[in-house]
Structure formats: structure tokens, C-alpha cells
Amino acid sequence: MNNGVVNVLLVGVGGQGTILAGRVLSRAAASLGGEVKVSDIHGMAQRGGSVVTQVRFGPRVYSPVMAPGTADFLVAFEKLEARRWLYYLKDGGQLIVNNQELPPLPVLTGAAVYPDNLVAEMEKLVKNMLVIDALDLARRAGNVKAVNMVLMGALARRLPISREAWEEALAASVPDRFLEVNKKAFNLGWEQNG
Amino acid sequence: MRELLIGNHALARGAWEAGVRVAAAYPGTPSTEIIEALAGYPEVYAEWAPNEKVALEVAIGAAIGGARSLAAMKHVGVNVAADPLMTLAYTGVNAGLVLVSADDPGLFSSQNEQDNRFYARMAQIPCLEPADSQEVKDMAMLAFSLSEEFDTPVILRLTTRIAHSYSLVELGERREVPLKDYVKQPAKYVMLPAFGKVRHRVVEERRLKLAAYAETTPLNRVEWADRRVGVISSGVAYQYVKEALPGVSVLKLGLTYPLPEKLIRDFVNAVDTCYVVEELEPFLEDQIRALGLAVTGKELVPRVDELSSVIVARTVGSRVAAFAPELVSPALAPAARAPEAAATAAAELPGRPPLMCPGCPHRGVFYVLKKLQLVVAGDIGCYTLGATPPLQAMDTCICMGASLGVAMGMEKARGPEFARRVVGVIGDSTFLHSGMTGLLDMVYNGSNGTLIILDNGTTAMTGHQDHPGTGYTAAHRHAPKADLEQIARALGVQRVQVVDSYDLEAVERAIREETAAAGPSVIIARRPCALLHKEKEAVYLVDKENCLGCRYCLELGCPALSFNGEQAVIDPIQCNGCGLCIQVCPAEAIRKAGEGNE
């Protein structure tokens, strides 16, 4: 339906590394030889707001942004953000969600409540859902900040991009001194089965 | 070699390949990365100017001086630079000059979503609208040649989705363009009325030549497909059209001012029905209608907010689907039918608004402003978030530098007593951008008002760019550091105080003193941006035995502070040890980690 275009939506909270994840994914996708388009939202979003990166790749990609209901993959770095952007996932699309809660300010100040049944609710709505504890896996890899690469690893296994292309993309996007930790995190993510 | 680049980096690359020598800008989303990238090329002099007007004037001087030059700014920055722009249109250039206008449909980080294509029409100069990063680079290069061929500044108009989207770009090498001779030509460059009158005729002749060029340039092209439906589009809107209506014929305009009359007329006449799909205002549509051609545009496509392929599918797409469903993308049909319902479900979740970072030096000042219930004339920067809950201590925010004039106007409207309850609040970068003249007005015209300069030593909102007060240039070289106290005093302000933004008592005392005092006052609340100050202080924690659960600390709106139902909790990962919470806690229940028993 998408003319061979794969749509991946990465959602999270400012500071979680969604933008870097998007860069690694887009570099890896460029190895397929077709077109790649990526759209980030900058500016005020970096101040702890909801962050969205859209990656689209295929033989011919026009719009840098995808339509709701057309994402083949929704990779959510946080549960509330997964629910917020779920309507972007197409029927039969794959949801990968990090089982982590980052309460937004209205919740911290008591003006709102963090929904307590998000995973159960999404399970009813989505056929293909993989819940992973990316924070724990990142910690095991050696750096809590590597949550983004754990999630990329989980995504990578489900995409038609070679392992070598991912490794090259990782090496090109991450400073040398963090490469080993990020590779480890990526591999731990790769091993997650859903 | 092909590389994934955002539009802004493709633009910098194109300008570099085209031999640009001088570039100037004031940071502003979504334009900031252009100068950051150009500052990395050794062949290019790239500067942060104090504001967009100066940036454009520097580019004008460079172009008259014979060097290819570029000025970059966000859409509202062009308002600031509009004065030189309108007369630059008369003088023309010597070497090529490109003005980049990065518009922000959808207001991702702006105070309005004005459509800057109108500037091209007002100034009678060419406007180019690329649709992806490759086109950004190609058009940036072409813009310099056009500028020189037609002796005109050229507007290269990006939008957020072009400026900040990555796509693949073919890289080339730099072509050195030698400096053009500088020849004194007062009749061309000194816009006395007598000379301006002559130059206006030149502008008109140039417009006609450009219109002729528009007919044949490959920037404007027809993509023939089914001739029952034609769509005229430009910029990112073209991509949405291709996505939503893959079967229709398209006239893609890359040069959107002046328009190619014959090309448009022939296209409209060759299709049964013609639509115009453009983001924001009916800029193309109005001009096409003025040619006497029947097209449909803004009666279907919204004038507000950013466009998307779904909106195109829902509006023009559903019209077309009624008689030629095969021309419309089936992939977008479900989203086009029911997008609102899905978005509404998401809207019921707790929002995640942008907020001041943990340890942000602005937080305490707004906490005090709220406590004192002052009327706050605000300005543009991270601190504009002081308007949002729970601080909600800002009454106005209009544009860069407006805090001073607005505070002054309120005082003059409502009298000196009211002035005791009004403060202007502005950041250091914004003050140097366009606050100084407002402060001069307060001195000159006898204000009793108070201005608070939130000096965090950077242009934080756009990603920590340097400015004349930081002591560094765009290329990270040492520079003289503008002294805010001296500037305020030199402008005639006698009462100038400096306080530590983290010291709530000192901030409150200063504000009380200065709002009560006669004459204009300046308070400089100083602390470096928490994101720049990397050394983390010892974090704070809550003593469970002492916490009363009063929630006073939550009034700070600090992301490290939350409430577990009965007591406050501090997240040690987020806490950066600014110590504001310890100052507002009435029960002495917060203390530094490592002090006392744990």
C-alpha cells in the first residue's frame, strides 16, 4: 500500500536520544540504495517535550512526514508517548515499546494522572507488540543513555537492512569512546523476541 | 557522493560550493544550522550578527564589495531585516546575495506563521522554494547566479519541514568565485530620492525580465499525467501532492515569484480541473486568479497550520476521488477519513509540554514574579515558558525586544502607580538583539519601569549560539564581551543591580526595591544556562520525617520534583542541585545529599 516505502516513527521524550536513533536508522536505511527522508522536530521540543522522529525509506519517497495510520513500525521510548502516537501505526504494524514511565510535568505537579494501564490497553489495540525493558538492558550494556540503541537493535531485527549496514551506521553516528557500549546495547536489543 | 543532510546543511553546502565568502545571521528556529555549518568552512567568513537587520546589512556590504554573500534568518527575522531588504531591491547587488527565509508553518518554535513569499512580491525580487535537501542545495547555487545575472537579491524560502528534514544530497566541490571589482556608483548604491526614483524603474524592468525567465527555467516544470486533474504547487506542498494524488498532472513551481504567466495559463487550459495546493496563504492562487484563470485552492485547503499529505487527501483528494478515484493514493484513504477521532483519543492523555530544564536559572525569577503578582511584559526565549503552568508569570510576548516597549506603553496608558506593578523581562541575547533601543526610550521618556535581564550567557532556545555578550564568535574565536551593566548605565539607567538567579531572596529584594524606586531600573539576574554549566552540584533530597506534603516546592515546576501522593520526591538523576526547592520549603525538609544521616 505504501509503494514499497517503509515508515518508522520514533517517539519519546526530549533527552532520550530519539534524534540520534533516527540518524543511525536513516544511515543504515541509506545502504539499501533507495531514498531516505527523515523529519525531526527541533526547537522547543528539546526542552523535555514530546519528541518525534519520522524515518521513511524506499525506492521513491516524497513527503518527509508520514500520515497517521501508515507507520509500519512505531518505536516508543516511553509508554505514554507510545499511546499518544499509537494512531500513527497502521493495521498490522509493529509496536516496540520501552517499558519506562517518564511522568510529564502536569503529572508531577498533580494536575494530571499518569494512566496506569497503558500496556494492557495497547495490547488490546495492537496485534504485534513488543514490550522491552530498554533501560535495564542499557544499564546491562554499561550506560543508561544507550536506551536508544537497545530499541534500534530490537527494530533492526525486523527490518530488511543488513547487520553490517547497521554497524557502519552506528560507527558513523556515535563517538568512538561510546561505540562499544552502544554496540552492546544494540545487540541486547536485537536479541529481544516478541 | 550522496549524503543525508537536513535542508539547512544542504543550503550551507550549496552556498559553499557556489563560492560564498561572507555569511551572517541571527539564530532562529528553523534557520540556525545554516550559519553553524558555514562557520565550519575555512573559506567562508560566517558571523552571528546582533540581529537580522545587521546580518542583512553585512551581506549587502559584502555583495556590493564584490563577494558572494548570504544572510539567513527565520521568517519573523525578515521583519527585522525588512528595512534594508526593501531598498536593497532597488540598489541590486554586485556579487550575488541570497537571503534565506526559514518559515515555520505550524509554529513549531515561533510566535506566528507568516508566509514570507509576500516579501518577494513586495520587494519585486525572485523567490525560490525548494522541495527537498537536494533542491535546497541546487537552488542555493543557482540563486547566486540568478542574483548576479539579474542584479537582484534572491529570497530562498525554506519551511521547517524542508529546513529540518534529511534527504540524500549529491555533494560537489567548491568553485572559487573571484571578488568582483568594487566600483563607486552613487546613483546605484546611494538611495537619495532622485536616485531611488530611477532605480525603481530598474526594479520594474527587472521584474519583467525575471517573469520572462520564469517561463523557461527548469525550476518550473510540468509533470504530465492524467489531464483530467492538474495541480499547481510548490515547496514541501509539492511532496504532499505527489504522495496524496500520484495520478494527477502537476505544475511544480520552484520560482514562485515572479510567476510564469504563459506556463500557468497553458497548464490550466490543458487540464479539465485545476487545483492550487500551497501551505499557508493563497500566494500563488491569488495571482493565478488575477490572470483570469479558474482554479480551486483555499476554499478546500486550509490557510492555517502546516499542510500534510493527509490534508491534501482529505480536501482535494476527496473531490478528485468522486470522479477519478484511481488518481488518489489508497494508502492515505483511512487517515483521510478519520484523522480527528484518532487524534482526539490521544488528546485525552496527559500532555507533555516543553518546560524549563532542571536547574534552569529562569525558574526562580518567574517564581518570584508570580509570588509578587506583577504584570510581566515578556520576550522571546526559553523564558517565554514562564507563561506556562505552574509559573504562569507572563502577560505578553509579541516579538524580539518587545518587552520594553510594551512595559513602557502600559505605564504610559495606566500611570506611574501601575508602573510599580509592571516589569519587562528579556534575555541577554534578545536584549542585545533589539532591547537596547527600548531601554533608551524608557530613559529618554521618563519611565519608572523595571527591566529584568535574564542573563544566562548564551542564546539558549536555539541551541546555545554565541552573541556579542558571550565573548566568542560564531567560529568560536575570542571576541570582546559586551558588558550589560555598562550598556544599561551608558543608556542612562542609574539604578542597575546584579543578582544571582538562584538566590530567591536577593531576586525578590531587588524586584521590590526597583519597582518601588522612581526612574527606570535594570536588574540583571545572572547564572549560566544549566545545560552549559556541566559540573553537576550535589543533588538534593527530601527528608521523609519533615516533609509536610504542602506541595509548595511543586510550584517551581521543576521536572526533578514530584509528589508521591503524600510527600515530595526528588529524582536524583534529574536534579542538578540548583537549590531553589530548599529555599521554598517551609518545613526545612529538603537538604543536600551527603549532609546529615541518610
From TrEMBL, chain A:
GO MF annotation: an example: oxidoreductase activity, acting on the aldehyde or oxo group of donors
Classification via SUPFAM superfamilies: Pyruvate-ferredoxin oxidoreductase, PFOR, domain III
Pfam family, one: POR
Domain Pyruvate/ketoisovalerate oxidoreductase catalytic: 14-190
Lineage top rank: taxon: Bacteria
Record's keyword terms, sorted: Oxidoreductase, Pyruvate
UniProt keyword Oxidoreductase, yes or no: yes
Keyword Oxidoreductase listed: yes
InterPro entries in the cross-refs: IorB_Oxidoreductase, Pyrv/ketoisovalerate_OxRed_cat, Pyrv_flavodox_OxRed_cen
Protein name, entry field: Indolepyruvate oxidoreductase subunit beta
Species of provenance: Moorella mulderi DSM 14980
Automatic annotation (TrEMBL), chain B:
Cofactor note: Binds 2 [4Fe-4S] clusters. In this family the first cluster has a non-standard and varying [4Fe-4S] binding motif CX(2)CX(2)CX(4-5)CP.
Stored Gene3D superfamilies: 3.30.70.20, 3.40.50.970
InterPro entries xref list: 4Fe4S_Fe-S-bd, 4Fe4S_Fe_S_CS, HACL1-like, IorA, Pyrv_Fd/Flavodoxin_OxRdtase_N, THDP-binding, TPP_enzyme_TPP-bd, Transketo_C/PFOR_II
EC class: oxidoreductase
Binding-site positions, [4Fe-4S] cluster 2: C558, C575, C578, C581
Domain 4Fe-4S ferredoxin-type residues, every copy: 538-559, 566-595
Pfam families documented for this protein: Fer4, POR_N, TPP_enzyme_C
Keywords: 4Fe-4S, Electron transport, Iron, Iron-sulfur, Metal-binding, Oxidoreductase, Transport
Catalytic activity, as annotated: indole-3-pyruvate + 2 oxidized [2Fe-2S]-[ferredoxin] + CoA = (indol-3-yl)acetyl-CoA + 2 reduced [2Fe-2S]-[ferredoxin] + CO2 + H(+)
Keyword Oxidoreductase: yes
Gene Ontology MF, one: 4 iron, 4 sulfur cluster binding
EC number(s) stated in the UniProt entry for this protein: 1.2.7.8
Coiled-coil region: none
Cofactor: [4Fe-4S] cluster
Binding site for [4Fe-4S] cluster 1: C547, C550, C553, C585
Protein task: Catalyzes the ferredoxin-dependent oxidative decarboxylation of arylpyruvates.
Quaternary structure annotation from Swiss-Prot or TrEMBL: Heterodimer of the IorA and IorB subunits.
Protein name per the record: Indolepyruvate oxidoreductase subunit IorA
Species of origin: Moorella mulderi DSM 14980
Gene coding for it: rsxB_1
